[in-house]
Design goal:
single chain, alpha+beta, about 35% helix, globular
Length: about 110
């Protein structure tokens, strides 16, 4: 099982993008990616909403997320969210361990 958390950061102007850039340039993202249980931590900009930044955050299990939330990394993330006055919308998904159904896989080109 893995848990995927999609976090949509939004703010005024380019604040969400500046937040993501500072997360990267400060080394915070690199440190999070090294945390035990982190499977993915990556930012994207939705084409339909360039003032929003999407974080795809994937963890091995809830215990890994809990340890991340209790880490000093969260203080840095919170400081930057406040600095850039960001609002968040969150979606959470648990992986389907059965894999991609054959009926769906025919639409995927590898």
């Amino acid at each position: 099982m893995s848990i995927v958390v999609n976090i949509y950061y939004s703010g005024t102007g380019e604040n969400a993008r500046k937040f993501a850039e500072e997360m990267e340039s400060s080394g915070t993202v690199a440190e999070i990616r090294k945390e035990k249980g982190n499977l993915r931590y990556e930012y994207f900009i939705p084409m339909a909403d360039p003032e929003t930044v999407l974080l795809i955050d994937c963890w091995k299990d809830q215990e890994s997320i809990d340890k991340h939330h209790a880490s000093p990394m969260m203080e840095k993330i919170t400081e930057l969210r406040v600095k850039y006055d960001l609002h968040m919308r969150v979606e959470r998904y648990v992986s389907d361990e059965g894999g991609i159904p054959e009926a769906d896989s025919r639409f995927i080109k590898e």
